[in-house]
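On clarity, I found the account of how folds are encoded harder to follow than it need be. For illustration, here is how one protein appears when written out as sequence plus structure tokens.
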Amino acid sequence: MRILLVGAGGVGAAFAAIARRRDFFETVVVADYDAARAEAAAEAAGERFVAAQVDASSAESVAALCREHAITHVMNAVDPRFVMPIFEGAFAAGADYLDMAMSLSRPHPESPYSECRVKLGDEQFAQAGDWEAAGRLALVGIGVEPGLSDVFARYAADHLFAEIDELGTRDGSNLTVEGYDFAPSFSIWTTIEECLNPPVIWQKDADGEGRWFTTPPFSEPEVFDFPEGIGPVECVNVEHEEVLLMPRWVDCRRATFKYGLGDEFIEVLKTLHKLGLDKTDKVRVGGVEVSPRDVVAACLPNPAELGPRMKGKTCAGLWVTGIGKDDAGQPTGPRSTYLYHVVDNEWAMAEYGHQCVVWQTAINPVVALELLARGTWSGAGILGPEAFDAVPFLDLLTEYGSPWGMQELTP
């Protein structure tokens, strides 16, 4: 396996730090628009890692780099605005593809808070036939969210539930950053995109037909009590890929994604929106054209560099409700189960030198690539993590030294 890692930022560098301890691949080419950043990440990872420069906005640039290095798998670790050129560049070069975020959505022009127009991943799924016909695999949404919760959905359907009412992704943390009043622990560009877009929900109607629909941002607040000392956090609806992926492979009556943002974070995002600072279209300032959202990102600290100042834990997980089943597959009655993965920042920094949010995101595609290299996971077309057996993934995640957990809740 020869991997092209596109993006040497926080998640990309953490990916390299995790992968370097494994032997399932021959080479990782760490590529970034900033050649110096790619070189630093490759050098830190050591042998089997080489650096390259790439224009992630150009499918031709990605394809050329794939051909130059005989790449078998392209790992996309950059902002979702670059999904389509990287995705198309991998296909043009005959490589398989993985990403942690899917192609961007576009809200409905007349009814943005009730109807979908272009959903997350629609542009990629439109090309599913081409990938399948070519015998190539695009494994989409294999970060932590989307990614691990999608694996949990498959596990719950196969081993825990006879019928599933709701697949509810619930993420939260108790992280603090010393010395900053406001310092997001993940890409602010991506955070603005997913938090201010209309959230999507999947639901079956009375006739059993399922449909996706939208709600206003930050809708349906609820308090969820997260495990391992994190505690209660208010969570709200946020646009996210799990809701677009899970119902394609796992039978459920409803699928949701809620994120524990906190009142302060929500107010900051609302203010950015009111001022137009969330926009990506460039505006002219003093003779220079800039994107307001890029300016916001440039003014905030780099999440990848916040690790030494961060304290606390982050939790990603899936709350599943429905009718449980026993080992023989027989229904056992109402069940409510939270499957989760918690990472402590102190551990992540001490063990890998990367803060917990980017580390938790990066470990899942490494695990997936190892399963693909072994032949444990295989397929063609555009597939989400739900399309594969969850047990090998969860076993290997534990082998990596980062076990998952399961908590029974009151139905």
The CA atoms of residues 100 and 141 lie 4 Å apart. The chain is about 35% helix and 25% strand.
